[in-house]
Amino acid sequence: MTYKLVLLRHGQSAWNKTNQFTGWVDVPLTEQGEAEAKRGGELLKEKNVLPDIVFTSLLRRAINTANIALDAADRLWIPVERSWRLNERHYGALQGKNKTEIRQEYGDEKFMLWRRSYATPPPEIDPDDQYAQNHDPRYAGDPVPEAECLANVVDRVKPYFESAIEPELRAGKTVLIAAHGNSLRAIVKMLDNLSEDEIAKVNIPTAIPLLYELDDDFKPIKPRGEYLDPEAAAAGAAAVAAQGQK
Ligand code: DG2
């Protein structure tokens, strides 16, 4: 049996466009982001990769991307499950800050450590910061982080993946996960069993479906999966990698 899992990062968000660290801040998609999401859905349809169930975060850029893409693929009717566990990595005190300015202020090494190291979180957010989430009703009863590194994201995504997502795959459903650059990197790290150095080099482009076909042990048949538009994905990933450089 082969299981099908599709990972989809949301389309360009308002803060992707303005080059700001976003994390758990609930910013909308831009017009370009909506168009990217539509194209992502068209790719699903063209390649006949039709999701039976969708999982999203609690953030509107992922929720709206899922809706736009599924609408374009004629699958808006499928069941949906949302969880904070698929939220973007909490970017701590960097939330709302401009990526280029942070790189200039703290230097390349610190900037890359905060963006791509596995185990070093960015500085914690002040609970009174305008971009803190501790009073947000959608997280009532759930722990709201003050900052997360990718290892923290793996720790919160893994149990959810195993308890909520794996059973749907085992039941033969094509599963779509519409989420974020770093929550999807956590899933890629798990699926491909990547080292900390390997995952540091992985960048997820916006709104291009990444298909994983998995064997019985949930090992990818093709390591790193397959983007449904590989050329656009390579260009998109390079643009993400270059963020903060200018
Ligand atoms: C971005 C990822 O998350 O940023 O939080 O700024 O996928 O929700 O747009 P997303 C953010 P980088 O880690 O790539 O800087």
TrEMBL record:
Pathway annotation: Carbohydrate degradation; glycolysis; pyruvate from D-glyceraldehyde 3-phosphate: step 3/5
Molecular function as annotated in GO: phosphoglycerate mutase activity
Marked site positions, Transition state stabilizer: 180
Catalytic residues of the enzyme: 10 (tele-phosphohistidine intermediate), 88 (proton donor/acceptor)
Alphabetically ordered keywords of this record: Gluconeogenesis, Glycolysis, Isomerase
Signal peptide, first to last residue: none
Assigned EC number: 5.4.2.11
GO BP field: gluconeogenesis; glycolytic process
Tree of life domain: Bacteria
SMART domains named in the record: PGAM
Keyword Isomerase: yes
Coiled-coil boundaries: none
Pfam families per the UniProt record, alphabetical: His_Phos_1
Binding site for substrate: 9-16, 22-23, 61, 88-91, 99, 115-116, 181-182
Chemical reaction(s) catalysed: (2R)-2-phosphoglycerate = (2R)-3-phosphoglycerate
Sequence similarity: Belongs to the phosphoglycerate mutase family. BPG-dependent PGAM subfamily.
HAMAP family in UniProt: PGAM_GpmA
Free-text function comment from the UniProt entry: Catalyzes the interconversion of 2-phosphoglycerate and 3-phosphoglycerate.
Protein's name according to its UniProt entry: 2,3-bisphosphoglycerate-dependent phosphoglycerate mutase
